[in-house]
């Protein structure tokens, strides 16, 4: 299963739980990009995952400008 399929499955499960427990507020999935290669983060972006967590802001600052440049092209 690829990243896009995993994200779709997880988001479907979130929707199911929200329905099951009558949760009406917005729930967002935060993907952890720590230790993952740029290609994996780029694939997640292409699958509409825009919220990412990193352990250190310095790592995100070093990683994301290049990833975002690739995504925009």
What does this protein structure show overall?
This protein has three helices and two strands; from the N terminus they run H-E-H-E-H. It is mainly alpha-helical. Strands 1-2 form a two-stranded parallel sheet. Helix 2 crosses helix 3.
Topology as H/E string? HEHEH
**Helical coverage, percent range:** 55-70%
Total number of β-strand segments? Answer: 2
Q: Please, what is the average pLDDT?
A: 92
**What structural class should be given to the helix and strand makeup?**
mainly alpha
The biggest beta sheet, please? 2 strands, parallel
Q: Quaternary arrangement of the chains shown?
A: single chain
Describe how the helices and strands are arranged.
Blueprint: H1 3-20, E1 31-32, H2 38-46, E2 52-53, H3 57-72
Parallel strand pairs: 1-2
Helix pairs in contact: 2-3
Question: Any key phrases for this structure?
Answer:
73 residues, mainly alpha, 3 helices
Short description:
By secondary structure, the protein is mainly α. Helices cover 59% and strands 5% of the residues.
